[in-house]
């Protein structure tokens, strides 16, 4: 869907030796790798471990977009070790395989993809992906999908608190909200209005090496 934004840059990317792979039917210009064809042709059998196992867990696993806590927006390096550590994120905040996690964060950020998707894989939880957050649809989604855990950034909770009050907005199964950037006034309003949802505020820069968890509330 985003290939049109990249296409004008293809000549300069090729000059810099940057490979461009696109998931989708195409057709695509010369020099672009059509990933769907490769996936269709790939074997279902795993390659031997020594082919895909990293030589060093501190080697780069992937690059992920950060809005620039330590400067300008950039691609932040994520090691194999850091990616593996994200498997335990939801366990650290008190979720389990019985939970249903609601995720509406962008997947090009660490919070959505590594903490959210990889975190769900780590505990075997169900993940409900919402393409775009909607404050007006949120509680209906929670009831329809049996959501028990919500991963937020602070503004999402503010949007929910700013919605007009409606009947039944406390009739849900949400028990845990976890994320970053929730201000104290919104925190208090959220719990007063929507019930005794446990909130765990976390903080960890994509390009940093320290994470903080507010377990005490």
What characteristics describe this protein?
long-chain fatty acid-CoA ligase activity, 10 helices, 10 strands, globular, 33% helix, six-stranded mixed β-sheet, ligase, Rossmann fold, two-stranded parallel sheet, 2 domains, alpha/beta, 217 residues
Structure summarized in a few sentences:
This protein has 217 residues and is of the alpha/beta class.
Give an account of the 3D structure.
It is built from ten helices and ten strands. The longest helix is centred in the middle third of the chain and has 14 residues, at 110-123. The protein has two domains: 2-50, no CATH class; 87-213, Rossmann fold (3-Layer(aba) Sandwich), CATH 3.40.50.980. Helix 9 (154-161) packs across helix 10 (184-194). The strands form three sheets. It has a six-stranded mixed sheet with strand order 6-5-7-8-9-10. Strands 1-2 form a two-stranded parallel sheet. Strands 3-4 form a two-stranded antiparallel sheet. Helix 7 (110-123) links the parallel strand 5 (100-103) and strand 6. The protein has 217 residues and is α/β, with parallel strands linked by helices. Helices cover 33% and strands 22% of the residues. It starts with a helix and ends with a strand. It has helices at residues 3-6, 10-15, 35-41, 49-52, 80-85, 89-92, 110-123, 138-145, 154-161, 184-194, and strands at 20-22, 32-34, 60-66, 74-79, 100-103, 126-129, 149-153, 176-180, 198-204, 211-214. This is Long-chain-fatty-acid--CoA ligase. InterPro entries: AMP-binding_CS, AMP-dep_synth/lig_dom, ANL_N_sf. It catalyses: a very long-chain fatty acid + ATP + CoA = a very long-chain fatty acyl-CoA + AMP + diphosphate; tetracosanoate + ATP + CoA = tetracosanoyl-CoA + AMP + diphosphate. GO terms for molecular function: long-chain fatty acid-CoA ligase activity.
